[in-house]
Amino acid sequence: MNDASCEDVALVDLADRLLAKGVTINGDIVLSVAGVDLVYLSLRALIASVETAMDLGVAQEGLLR
Amino acid sequence: MIRLVAVVDDGPAAARALFDLTDRDLVIVGRDPATCLGLQWPEPPPEPDGAALRQFNGLIQALMDTCTVLPFRFWAAAQQTQKIDRWLSEQSARLVALMGRVRGRVELAVRASVESAGSAAPAGSGRAYLEGLRRSQQAHPALLGMHSALAGVSADARVLSADGARLAAAYLVDAGRVPGFCRAVDAAAGASPGVCRRTVTGPWAPYSFVDLPDGVVEPGRRGRG
Fold first, then answer.
1. Which residues of chain A make contact with B57, given a CB cutoff of 8 A?
2. What is the least distance, in Å, from the CA of A25 to any CA of chain B?
């Protein structure tokens, strides 16, 4: 794993810890990592780009912005 | 508004640790053995981007070097010091016990995954579809086996999320045993057939093992939109 990937993993773990409480109540939040908007769904298992999440129909723009 | 940072067991030392890391006015409520630290924050809380999260965690990490820390989450806030003081008084025994449990220990985060079996074949019935969905939402046995092994070498353990191919968990480990725990991760992964990837991050403050009640803590904000 390169340094950038390690940083992203650490940031995901950090977000899980710092945001888990409270955010999970309402669901979605957008977090930007290295200039790319990422969406956490319930901040649990899934992390994907906003674009991908919308393509898959698992998120609605109104929930994310 | 007061953004809450942590409850600590050594208020003066903790305040000194934060003093050089922030230009905000510190809010210090209570006294040993349970002191609450916060920051004066008149404007809305920041967006939770990477920089803001790292900055908040930086405060927590600085406290970890100084004393025992019960960290608040990013959104935690209170309006009045009187409410914090009352909450500390009401929760004192619980907070002291919690600090005793995490003292000298750190949290390590482990993410592991197995090769995905891919999408299930098209379901022939609603029942088959739902059974396939249920299987995909349950942790893979190899991941559960790995978690069980790691739980056995840690003081406490929590599964944070799991599905058919991935597992994220948190482990409370004695600070002096972090290298040994990392070796245990490698060993557990090697002994769990199918585990193809794992990462360990930390040491973190014991976020996953400290669930401060929401009573006094008024969520500052819960996300965009």
1. 14, 18
2. 8
What pLDDT, in 10s, does the model give residues B50-83? 888 899 999 999 999 999 999 998 878 888 888 8
Q: Which two tokens stand for residue B170?
A: 């948190």
Helices (H), A1-65: 3-26, 50-55, 61-64
Of A6, A22, A45, the CB nearest to B219: A22
Element spanning B132, H or E: helix B126-137
Per-residue pLDDT tens over the stretch B98-117 = 999 999 999 999 988 887 65
Q: Give the pLDDT score at B135.
A: 65
Size of interface A-B (CB pairs under 8 A): 87
Whole-model pTM: value is 0.77
- A46-49 and A28-33 as β-strands: parallel, antiparallel, unpaired? unpaired
Secondary structure of chain B: what % helix, strand, coil (to 5)?
A: 40, 25, 35
Q: Of A29, A60, A55, A54, whose CA–CA distance to A43 is shortest?
A: A29
